[in-house]
Amino acid sequence: METKIEIGVWRIRRYEERKNMNADFRIDGKVIETKRLILRSFKQTDLEDFYEYASVEGVGEMAGWKHHENIAESQSIMNSFISEDKVFAICLKKNNKVIGTVGIEKYGLEDALTEFKDYYGRELGYVLSKDYWGKGIMPEAVKTVIDYLFNVKNLDFLTCGYYDFNIQSKRVQEKCGFKPYRKLVIETKIGTQEQSILNLLINPKKKIEFIFSHPETLIWKEIIKYESRKLDDDTVKSLIELSKQWQEEDCSYGMIVNTKDNLRKPLYVAVEKDKIIGYIFGHYYKLENKTSYIEVGSNCFMIDEIYVIPSYRSKGVGKELFKLMENEIKESCDYITLSTSTKDYKKILHFYVDELDMNFHSAFLIKDL
């Protein structure tokens, strides 16, 4: 049976001042650095860079606004960026060139979306110069802004949306952990009405259960919870049973069923209807012997095991477990490491390298003679 969702036209005034649970936010001189980028407030000297990419046809249109016709238009908009102080300029580290923005905007329909009334959040919006599409720049920028908003500013949630035709933006939001929340028709700044998806991301450090309003546009599915666990008797029993299932799959070399003594903390689990469907655990260690990548004395965290039952694979469960773990341990260590003995190395490398942004360092190969 096909389920149809009725879509209404919701006119979202993204920049209108509202009074309820949009969190207060100003950049206030904050500078965020990533491997390739610097995120900072706009300055008047950024005008030429801003106009250079904002005047290109197809850049603004992907976000619902018309590309800039002249530099005076860019100047006016950049002046508002500076005065409102809520839009980060994305700058390349190598030359300080501005190539895009990440805005921490007020989410619309605040009075209507009553599920957020007891929580504080904002809406993310972003634009990137067409010259830098497809290079992983935007996920790099958005992820570090999310980290800042959740772990420093202590926001409860973030929303972020895309128009159905903007597949690139959809992929960025998926990579950053956003989940489909509402299906809407949004009126753009250029007067068109576009079918859209509004996504939601909840701060993983907080135990939040929303009571959602407006079911006619709701597509959120809150079925799996991710949490840290103590090794109590029930948890140990469940993990041992999952370990037996893993061994029966015969997908890893030398897989031995866990005992209570093999299990370690910190432990993080994915739970559906009180049943553990996946887990990740590991241990901290200090590197004693220099490698070609990690210096002696570095604080590291070794993932001992990560497992998701087969019916939940390729649904983001393993990725969410990893993100929860990473968020909890990153203040205590410099590197996350792991080794794998999987029989399907192509799939597992895709997961670790492409999905989790880990770096492939070395391999130990064997040939039977």
Structure description:
This protein has 369 residues and is α+β, with helices and mostly antiparallel strands. The strands form 2 sheets. It has a 9-stranded mixed beta sheet, sandwiched between helices. A 5-stranded mixed beta sheet has the order 10-11-12-13-14. Strand 2 and strand 3 form a beta hairpin. Helix 1 packs across helix 2. It is globular, with a radius of gyration of 23 Å. The N terminus is likely disordered.
Keywords:
nine-stranded mixed beta sheet, alpha+beta, single chain, 369 residues, five-stranded mixed beta sheet, 7 helices, 25% strand, globular
Give the topology:
Layout: E1 9-10, E2 32-33, E3 37-40, H1 47-54, H2 71-84, E4 87-92, E5 98-105, E6 121-128, H3 137-151, E7 157-163, H4 167-175, E8 179-187, E9 193-202, E10 225-229, H5 233-249, E11 267-272, E12 275-286, E13 299-308, H6 317-329, E14 335-337, H7 345-355
Parallel strand pairs: 1-8, 6-7, 13-14
Antiparallel strand pairs: 2-3, 3-4, 4-5, 5-6, 7-9, 8-9, 10-11, 11-12, 12-13
Helix pairs in contact: 1-2
